[in-house]
Amino acid sequence: MDRPSWAPLFSHVLITLCFGIAQPQQFCSNKGIFSVSSAYSNNLNLLLSSLPSRMAENGIFYKATVGQGPDKVYALALCRGDLPSEKCYSCVNATSQSIKQQCPNQKEAIMWTDSSCLLRYANRDIFTKMEEIPPFCVSNPNNFSGDFAKFNETLHGLMEKLITQASSGLKFATGYVSFTKPIYGLVQCIPDISESDCRSCLQKGMGEMESCSGGHEGGRILSPSCIVWFDLFRFYEPAGTLDAPLQFPPGPAPANLAQPPSPPSPANVSPPNQTRNKKVIIIAVASLVTLITIICALILWRRMKQKVESKSRQF
């Protein structure tokens, strides 16, 4: 009797937890500061407090301004195109609170949370403009093992098709291509930039990926105007993608997608050996989860320590 392979599933879940969800990516500009009681501070607080509800009303993207002259604040929020509305709201709501904590008095700041939503504000017009700096890099820690030249060729073919689809349409695309393991990709641009700027941002993001995640099983480039992401597991929401199913070339379903189990016979009872084997598997999985969780905690503690030391970095 075939037994399910639990290790790959838990590995993908833990990689996501350790290297994506738990780590907001932010930059706080030092090009200008404001005092707590200033008009700029009041305008910013008004904008940030209203963004979550405005996102719920308008979909995955919203932008607005408050104030006049030097106290005018520009702000925008964007969710990944595959997120359900409730997750989008939760992400923007959490980010609107975190960005004030991380950047308490800077007049310009940007934050990606969970690689799922972007929130940005500034004392200058940031609308309809393609900006690439600062780019955030999040790399899958696993090194790719296999024919890397063929993997790279297949990956670039997939991403180029997604870039073309996104830039000429809804500014968002997802898809996968069959390889030794399926390669999944996602690209997205800020909706208010032009088609040519969107393509340029995504292509430059792929260029950044070479130095960021070359040789790895996955990686993300998060910039102010676009996101580029690939991995060897399905990291986006299948039910929410705008182009599913997208596969290059057409072929069978990916090997790692779970198939519905056959219904068991009511009269069948697991023999003692199978019961013991299940207990051994459960113990092994629990031990693996505990070990990797400890490793993740140490890695996250080290990264947070490095963030604190580099918090004053300019961009």
Automatic annotation (TrEMBL):
Can you give the residue ranges of the Gnk2-homologous domain? 22-126, 132-235
What keywords were assigned to this record? Answer: Membrane, Repeat, Signal, Transmembrane, Transmembrane helix
The protein's superkingdom reads Eukaryota
| Annotated transmembrane regions | 280-301
Per the record, a Pfam family? Stress-antifung
The ranges of region (Disordered) come to 250-273
Q: Which InterPro entries match?
A: GNK2, GNK2_sf
Cite the PROSITE patterns for this sequence: GNK2
Range of residues in the leader sequence:
1-24
Sorted alphabetically, which PANTHER family does this protein's record hold? Answer: CYSTEINE-RICH RECEPTOR-LIKE PROTEIN KINASE 11, CYSTEINE-RICH REPEAT SECRETORY PROTEIN
Q: What is this protein called?
A: Gnk2-homologous domain-containing protein
